[in-house]
């Protein structure tokens, strides 16, 4: 036994179970793993032979196909012990507690008040139980034919949160991480450090209220396992089909849906998600934003987390160069809904789970672990990150909230007492920034009229370092990926007064309605404004295709002088910006275009120009010059790229 295993076994000796049993029994019985674990743990003599244990369970499990013969047996013999899932309700009409035995297929089973007093959780949600059911025989009525004699809960344990926190704190983080992964059935030795922390993100929705996560990846990576098998606090909506009544609120029964009964709702095969009611997406957007929604005259609050799971059906390089949200159905490819996601987990980085990845060692009981996770949902660790790092002030509210919630989730999972070092917090922060940036980059690319690019830069409070996230998938691009302005934005440069550089940023926006009108957000040089109006009219008259696209929108131009004011004809640059906006095209370089004059060549003949740096809204932009035959170009590159390119000089001639 390794030191890691020995330490974990010492600290959690009374909360452990050999996961090898679960792995061997996982395909033999149609009940969740946490139920099997509880049966094993409650056994006075836990079986050393999984086959014998399997046989013991099989004798008590109810198979729906054989329910009729089992009911006949109960009527004949009087009693029978079974394992089933119960749903208990109190009926005011006859003042009785009655249960539905879901697998046995019968309802209105009498439950004595004493059993309810001993197990009040029966009234809160469906519960897996080992029960002794009896036939009422002579006292049976057409409505009530059976009663429960005995009941043992097979899920949920008494839980001491302070004790849990104390035990975890006694382990170093590596030991605890190892035990945590063994508890969910995996061997961390088979994972890279990055993969282990990405996989850990799957657990954040269990510890953080109203946390919205999306994971798109390949099949066989275990995306749905946690949400289906580990706890009754989550539900996997298979096939993606549900209703507003089931998901949110049933106006007929006046009962809250899954969002009020589960901690986590995961949509499997998200490509097939479909709501019968067209208003469902709007309700989901409201809920994902604030944890509340309106239904009828009711404002309803809940804290369930939403998880979207989907499969990638093409080469990852093609997907990343195209659209990282392509696997989503059109119904969910809504910019407002996507903006409400807190974290995009890059599932393509997770390997398929092979036999070697599954643990046969001791791990924590599922019921115990997820009771801890449930309790951690009540803790608020979102402000801990600001003890060490200051988030980018330019981040909007959703960005900063998402980053804080993700960091808080990692802290809850690995440091439930809230004590975390700056070095570890930095690791969690980098992942949190990356997971949100992946979402924001998509929004900037496809909805540039609504979103602007963010650097997501964070600085240490003590000024010792900065954190600037980058997306690992950028390596799949065939050329160096430039951080471009959104479509419709262009930088125009001109050499004036023999050796001075004038720079103007022109920003064009439009909305998906209008009649082909052009207006100016602010004023600039009257001659330039006149040129653009004339150019706009000419562009509409030249091409049937572009005229049709222009006439369906209205356009708004904003002038943003960055250095000295220009006085050149910028019609060509305007056309490039307009074209990029209309067709949402990503231009290979972002432009600073000067007039094609001799002035530039004469002023800088036989010289070379280093990068030009400009500051805009507190952000540093780096512009590298390129010489063309007709005019001068500047490309904008990200700071993290520029700072790693030493002595980058481009000749003007």
Folded structure, characterized:
- The chain has 653 residues and is of the alpha+beta class.
- The protein is 34% helix and 23% strand.
- It is built from 24 helices and 30 strands.
- It has a five-stranded antiparallel β-sheet with strand order 4-3-2-5-6.
- It is elongated and about 105 Å long.
- The protein starts with a helix and ends with a strand.
- Residues 477-484, 587-610 and 624-653 have low confidence and may be disordered.
**Terminus-to-terminus distance:** 70 Å
Helix content bin: 25-40%
Largest sheet, described in full?
Answer: 5 strands, antiparallel
* Side-by-side strand order of the widest sheet: 4-3-2-5-6
Q: Note the overall shape.
A: elongated
The stretches of 5 or more residues where confidence is low (pLDDT under 50) are 477-484, 587-610, 624-653
The average pLDDT value, as a whole number, equals 81
How many distinct beta strands? 30
Number of helices: 24
Tell me the structural class.
alpha+beta
**Proportion of beta-strand residues:** 15-25%
Computed Rg: 31 Å
Oligomer: single chain
């Amino acid at each position: 036994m390794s030191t890691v295993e020995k330490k974990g076994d010492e600290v959690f000796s009374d909360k452990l179970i050999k996961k090898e049993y679960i792995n061997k029994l996982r395909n033999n019985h149609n009940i969740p793993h946490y139920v099997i674990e509880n049966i094993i743990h409650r056994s006075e003599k836990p079986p050393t032979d999984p086959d014998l244990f399997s046989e013991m369970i099989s004798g008590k499990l109810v198979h729906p196909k054989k329910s009729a013969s089992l009911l006949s047996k109960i009527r004949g013999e009087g009693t029978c012990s079974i394992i089933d899932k119960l749903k208990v309700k109190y009926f005011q009409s006859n003042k009785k507690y009655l249960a539905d035995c879901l697998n046995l297929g019968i309802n209105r089973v009498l439950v004595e008040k004493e059993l309810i007093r001993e197990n009040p959780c029966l009234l809160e949600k469906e519960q897996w139980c080992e029960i002794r059911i009896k036939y009422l025989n002579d006292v049976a009525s057409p409505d009530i034919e059976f009663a429960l004699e005995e009941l043992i809960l097979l899920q949920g344990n008494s839980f001491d949160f302070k004790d849990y926190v104390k035990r975890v704190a006694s382990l170093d983080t590596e030991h605890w991480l190892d035990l945590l992964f063994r508890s969910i059935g995996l061997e961390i030795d088979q994972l890279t450090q990055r993969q282990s922390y990405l996989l850990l993100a799957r657990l954040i929705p269990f510890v953080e209220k109203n946390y919205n996560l999306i994971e798109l990846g390949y099949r066989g990576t275990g995306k749905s396992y946690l949400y289906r098998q580990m706890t009754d606090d989550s539900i996997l909506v298979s096939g993606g089909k549900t209703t507003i009544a089931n998901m949110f609120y049933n106006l007929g029964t006046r009962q809250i849906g899954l969002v009020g009964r589960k901690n986590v709702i995961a949509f499997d095969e998200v490509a097939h998600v479909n709501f019968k009611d067209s208003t469902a997406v709007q309700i989901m957007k409201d809920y994902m934003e604030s944890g509340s929604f309106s239904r009828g005259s009711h404002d309803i609050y809940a804290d369930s987390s939403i998880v979207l799971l989907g499969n990638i059906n093409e080469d990852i390089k093609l997907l990343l160069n195209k659209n990282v949200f392509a696997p989503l159905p059109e119904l969910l490819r809504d910019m407002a809904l996507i903006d409400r996601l807190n974290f995009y987990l890059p599932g393509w980085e997770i390997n398929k789970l092979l036999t070697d990845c599954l643990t046969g060692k001791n791990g924590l009981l599922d019921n115990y672990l997820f009771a801890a996770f449930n309790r951690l949902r009540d803790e608020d660790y979102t402000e801990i990150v600001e003890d060490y790092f200051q988030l980018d002030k330019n981040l909007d509210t959703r960005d900063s909230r998402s980053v804080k919630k993700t960091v808080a989730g990692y802290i809850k999972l690995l440091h439930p007492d809230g004590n975390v070092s700056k070095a570890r917090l930095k690791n969690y922060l980098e992942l949190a920034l990356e997971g949100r940036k992946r979402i924001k980059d998509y929004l900037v690319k496809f909805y540039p009229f609504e979103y602007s690019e963010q650097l997501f830069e964070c600085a240490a409070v003590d000024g010792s370092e900065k954190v600037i996230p980058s997306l690992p998938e950028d390596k799949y691009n065939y050329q160096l990926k430039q951080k471009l302005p959104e479509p419709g934005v262009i930088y125009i440069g001109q050499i004036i007064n023999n050796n001075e550089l004038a720079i103007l940023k022109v920003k064009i926006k439009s909305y998906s309605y209008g009649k082909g009108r052009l207006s100016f957000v602010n004023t600039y040089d009257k001659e330039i404004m006149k040129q653009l109006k004339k150019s706009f009219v000419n562009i509409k008259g030249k091409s049937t295709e572009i005229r049709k696209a222009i006439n369906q929108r209205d356009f708004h131009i904003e002038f943003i002088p960055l250095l000295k004011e220009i006085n050149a004809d910028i019609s060509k640059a305007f056309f490039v910006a307009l074209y990029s906006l209309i067709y949402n095209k990503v231009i290979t370089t972002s432009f600073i275009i000067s007039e094609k004059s001799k002035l530039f060549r004469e002023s800088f003949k036989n010289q070379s120009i280093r990068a030009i740096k400009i500051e805009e809204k507190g952000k540093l932009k780096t512009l590298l010059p390129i010489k063309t035959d007709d005019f001068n170009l500047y490309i904008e590159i990200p700071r993290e790229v520029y700072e790693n390119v030493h002595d980058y000089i481009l000749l003007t001639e």
